[in-house]
Design a protein that fits this description.
Number of domains of chain B: 2
Number of helices of chain A: 15
Order of helices and strands of chain B: HHHEHEHEHEHEEHEHEHHHHEHHEEH
CATH class of the largest domain in chain B: Alpha Beta
Number of helices of chain B: 16
Oligomer: heterodimer
Radius of gyration of chain B: 21 Å
Radius of gyration of chain A: 30 Å
Structural class of chain A: alpha+beta
Strand content of chain A: 15-25%
CATH architecture of the largest domain in chain B: Alpha-Beta Complex
Distance between the termini of chain A: 72 Å
Helix content of chain A: 40-55%
Strand content of chain B: 5-15%
Number of strands of chain B: 11
Number of strands of chain A: 17
Shape of chain A: elongated
CATH superfamily of the largest domain in chain B: Amidase signature (AS) domain
Helix content of chain B: 25-40%
Largest interface: A-B, 29 and 45 residues
Shape of chain B: globular
Strand order of the largest sheet of chain B: 1-3-2-4-6-5-10-11-9-7-8
Largest sheet of chain B: 11 strands, mixed
Chain lengths: ~475, ~500
């Protein structure tokens, strides 16, 4: 990107809230049901039906606002936003216009190792719309999604590159997942965003003409589309042209943004207050209660991992990045009573498996309890590290109980001195030259003998005991 | 059927409650009356006789088992705008052709819980938009007092059926006078409860901040009985208030001694029908004789009420009626794409008055006009509400005409919507202010058309207006007069 231009990006991020029921009715708020099964007259917009506000959706939105440092409006209301589209059961969306639940706030991202605050304009609560599915020759509407509580987080145009936008979304996701606000599962459409982007000559104060890229549902898509759009706008301006204010669509396959509609075709949403709902009035006590119940945020948790478990800062950072991974680690650490070992297993084996197979930790067959048992088996010297790795591989493949696996695979470590002494004596007898080397001062020779004993035991000999026995024999 | 001869005079629930006749007998008789009278007045869009008799039979059994409330077995008609599970709900529009309600409106289920019998669906102005019941896809309703005249609207079918004796009582809805004005035009009692008194859940919305469900009845006492059953908080309607429901029937006692009744000077205006004014003045004198003190009050913002009402009501209607697009239910006209389909469907199946109001409402909310119209109207609405708050500091209730005229001749006002809208001048204010209003018969014109007295009370002041209405009614005999088309037979 050229230094001759400044880029300003603002994101409107829609986040589905993790409530049990929909925002206006008792239908389940779940993903993946048969089309049009989680529906009722209310979320289908039948004549005469009325919305009743799900208070949990308000609580989660306010919790998000508190986490992001927003000011919470004590008096808030809902408005109707009118436009015709087949995914709209009522042909108006109940949203919040001039009195949203949360105002201001910010999201901190790291840019070149330095923290940068991305200011938020507001967070408001609204209903999600249905989903249109297009088939050969016809289209269908699935209303299961209609009425899912949806929070819209509107940022100021403080982001100045595609990478910053990407980092912003990651930071936002991390916090929202930590707060239990949303699962932020992108495949399920939990988190989608509209991008506003403009460029201007570096010397110019005033923002350039913006374009809007609608309905992005992957972070990578945001990164790619912005990279394209920024370059496109710079090319337009550099060649003496003007950016047209318009809505654009990202064509992921072609890797380009395309014009959808110009400003002249923009909807007139005709907002007015929703007469079927009372204003939302929040008491100080209610808000303070929610504030007190805010969960631990990633930065705090990272420091606690360092202080409480003695982990290196880097390791702590890696573990807290994904809340599910951090939760897994803590469960193992507490169960096994050995945080260092738990951290080592997580940092090496677990994360390797996750990245190799592109899995979420919830998908993996190893449970925190099983990994803790495995760590205890090592600590109790019931198996050695070689055996432990074999057990772990079996846990990854099929799950199960580590003790049963040890039993079934015959991996129990041999600590019986009788058997050990036999293998040690055989190794010494078979390699007199090596014994001479060792006695001549070549300490590495001991490792060779050690390897012979381990091989004779098929890996099951207790290594410290073998070492001790060798020393006893050779040094005497 | 000798017992019905007596019943014909009172047309009350007493015979049912005393066991003189059964609900099945009454409903059987009513179904025949409906068939006779509807040849002329067209009050019902549809009846479900078989189902009505089933309900009546169940009600009779319930009464026999001794668990019956006052409404058990009472035959009631329901305005076509209210959802009843398994029944059509056309809202007198072609756009809801083929639609069957999947649920009961709360008001309907409360009546059914009491054992009331639902006779059928009453005609109305399409989507409750109109003051004459001429805007119906199912044909105009005619006034039982004279079929050349309108019954009023939009609950014209409800008022005509009750006036003609083809229902004991009916549910109507009132957005700007749609219960009180037809009750007045048909010489019956109409009650618009305070906003939030009766759940709106299941009422196909016209203007959500103004709509209320209420009864049209033979007597004030019947209205009190029905309101007691209908009123109360409903978890499905966030705007229904959590206020205790009194037994409204027990408020119907005594004369009017100690009461102050206000006469708003803006409601007795130049150009109003002289016979109407005379009858209403006479009624106010009657109230004075019953012990009330009359005081003149002022509601200074009344002149802005019609403009304010038609901005707010149409704005809300433009959004409320957006859902009728042919995608999920109702009639559909095919189009080349979804928006084309919407346009064609709505053009083909909405009537002209509905289209007029949707366009008006869309306009007053549109960018650049929103502040000048919608926002300004909301501000004026606040002023109108304050007018009433001030007035009710000086009196317990207000006495006014329901409408400036008696019923119009069929076709008389259809060409001039503005004149039609102006006829709502005395009723829209109660909806804008959220207060309650009662219409009771108070005389007849020289053409033998009924005239109505409107009694307005403060929000949640239903006990007061019912008491005034009852005392007045019991001191007159307007309410027992029967129209020529009573029970479907011209006499």
């Amino acid at each position: 990107m050229s230094d001759a231009f400044k880029v300003s990006i603002g994101l409107e991020t829609h986040v589905q809230l993790d409530t049990r029921s929909k925002i206006w009715c008792g239908c389940a708020n779940v993903f993946g049901s048969e089309p049009n099964t989680d529906v009722c007259p209310v979320c289908l917009g039948y004549p005469g039906t009325m919305p009743v506000l799900n208070r949990e959706a308000v609580r989660l939105t306010v919790m998000a606002g508190l986490m992001l440092g927003c000011e919470i409006n004590r008096y808030s209301k809902f408005d109707r936003k009118s436009y015709f589209y087949p995914d709209m059961p009522k042909n108006y969306q109940i949203s919040q216009y001039d009195l949203p639940l949360c105002l201001g706030g910010g999201v901190e991202i790291m840019v070149d190792g330095q923290p940068k605050n991305i200011r938020l304009n507001r967070i408001h609560l609204e209903e999600d719309v249905a989903k249109n599915n297009h088939f050969e020759g016809f289209s269908g509407v699935d209303f299961n999604r209609a009425g899912t509580p949806l929070m819209e987080i509107v940022s100021e145009p403080d982001l100045s590159s595609a990478e910053e936008a990407f980092a912003y979304l990651q930071a936002l996701k991390q916090m929202l997942v930590y707060g239990g606000i949303s699962e932020c599962n992108l495949e399920q459409g939990n988190m989608r965003c509209d991008i506003n982007c403009s460029v201007r000559p570096a010397a110019q104060e005033q923002l350039g003409t913006k374009t809007e890229i609608k309905n992005m549902n992957t972070f990578k898509g945001v990164l790619r589309s912005l990279t394209y759009e920024i370059k496109r706008q710079i090319d337009v301006v550099s060649s003496g042209g003007r950016v047209v204010q318009e809505t654009r669509r990202w064509d992921d396959e072609a890797g380009v943004t395309r014009s959808m509609r110009s400003k002249e075709d923009a909807h007139d949403y005709r907002y007015f207050p929703e007469p079927d709902l009372m204003p939302v009035v929040l008491s100080e006590q209610e808000i303070e209660g929610w504030r007190a119940s805010l969960p631990e945020m990633p930065t705090t948790r990272r420091q606690r991992f360092v202080d409480e478990y003695g982990l290196p800062d880097y390791d702590a950072g890696v573990l807290v990045a994904d809340k599910a991974v951090a939760d897994f680690f803590e469960a193992v650490a507490r169960d096994a009573g050995n945080p260092k070992a738990a951290s080592n297993w997580m940092m090496t084996e677990m994360l390797r498996v996750l990245s190799a197979d592109d899995l979420e930790i919830a998908d993996i067959k190893v449970t925190p309890a099983a990994l803790a048992v495995l760590i205890r088996l090592v600590d109790e010297k019931a198996i050695n590290n070689t055996g432990a790795k074999e057990v772990f591989a079996e846990l990854v493949a099929n799950g199960g109980d580590p003790k049963a696996i040890v039993e079934a695979k015959g991996l129990a470590q041999v600590s019986d001195t009788g058997a050990l002494n036999t293998w040690v004596e055989e190794a010494i007898a078979a390699h007199p030259n090596v014994v001479d080397d060792y006695r001549g001062g070549k300490r590495a020779a001991l490792q060779f003998l050690m390897g012979q004993v381990m091989r004779a035991s098929q890996g099951k000999a207790n290594p410290p005991m073998v070492l001790q026995a060798l020393r006893d024999k050779l040094d005497s | 059927m000798a017992k019905f001869a007596d019943h014909n005079e009172t047309f009350s629930l007493a015979g049912l409650q005393q066991g003189t006749f059964s609900s099945v007998e009454w409903v059987t008789d009513l179904l025949q009356r409906i068939e006779r009278s509807d040849k002329t007045i067209n009050a019902y869009i549809s009846t479900d006789g078989e189902w009505a008799l089933e309900q009546a039979k169940a009600a009779d059994q319930r009464r026999a088992s001794g668990e019956a409330g006052p409404l058990c077995g009472a035959p009631i008609g329901v305005k076509d705008v209210l959802n009843v599970q398994g029944q059509p709900c056309h809202c007198a529009s072609r756009i809801l052709e083929g639609y069957t309600s999947p649920y009961d409106a709360t008001a309907v289920s409360r009546l059914r819980d009491q054992g009331a019998v639902l006779l059928g669906r009453l005609n109305m102005d399409e989507f409750a938009m109109g003051s004459t019941n001429e805007n119906s896809a199912f044909g105009a309703v005619r006034n039982p007092w004279n079929p050349d005249f309108v019954p009023g609207g939009s609950s014209g079918g409800s008022a005509a059926a009750v006036a003609a004796g083809s229902a004991w009582a009916a549910l109507g809805t009132d957005t700007g006078g749609s219960i009180r004005q037809p009750a007045s035009f048909c010489g019956r009692v109409g009650l618009k409860p305070s906003y939030g008194r009766v759940s709106r859940f299941g009422l196909t919305a016209f203007a959500s901040s103004l709509d209320q469900i209420g009864p049209i009845t033979q007597t004030v006492s019947d209205a009190a009985t029905l309101l007691t059953a209908l009123a109360g908080h409903d978890a499905k309607d966030s705007t229904s208030l959590k206020q205790a429901v009194p037994d409204y029937s027990s408020a119907l006692k005594g004369d009017l001694r100690g009461m102050r009744l206000g006469l708003p000077k803006q409601y007795f205006i130049e150009g109003m029908d002289q016979e109407v004014e005379a009858a209403v003045r006479q009624a106010t004198e009657q109230c004075r004789e019953l012990g009330a003190e009359l005081v003149e009050v002022s509601l200074p913002h009344t002149e802005y009420a019609i403009a304010t009402y038609y901005i707010i009501a149409t704005a809300e209607a433009s959004a409320n009626l957006a859902r009728f697009d042919g995608v999920r239910y109702g009639a559909r006209e095919a189009g080349s794409d979804p928006l084309d389909q919407y346009g064609k469907t709505r053009a083909a199946f909405f009537g002209p008055e509905v289209k007029r109001r949707i366009i008006l409402g869309t306009y007053v909310l549109s960018s650049g006009y929103h502040d000048a119209y919608y926002l300004r109207a909301q501000q004026v609405r606040t002023l109108i509400r304050r007018d009433f708050e001030d007035a009710f500091k000086q009196c317990d209730a207000l006495l006014t005409p329901v409408a400036p005229t008696t019923a119009y001749r069929i076709g008389e006002r259809t060409a001039d919507p503005i004149q039609m809208y102006l006829g709502d001048i005395f009723t829209v204010t109660a909806n804008l202010a959220g207060i309650c209003g009662l219409s009771v018969p108070c005389g007849f014109s020289s053409a033998d058309l009924p005239i109505g007295l409107q009694i307005l009370g403060p929000a949640f002041g239903e006990e007061t207006i019912l008491r005034v209405g009852h005392a007045y009614e019991q001191s007159t005999d307007w309410h027992v007069r029967r129209p020529p088309l009573w029970a479907g037979t011209a006499s």
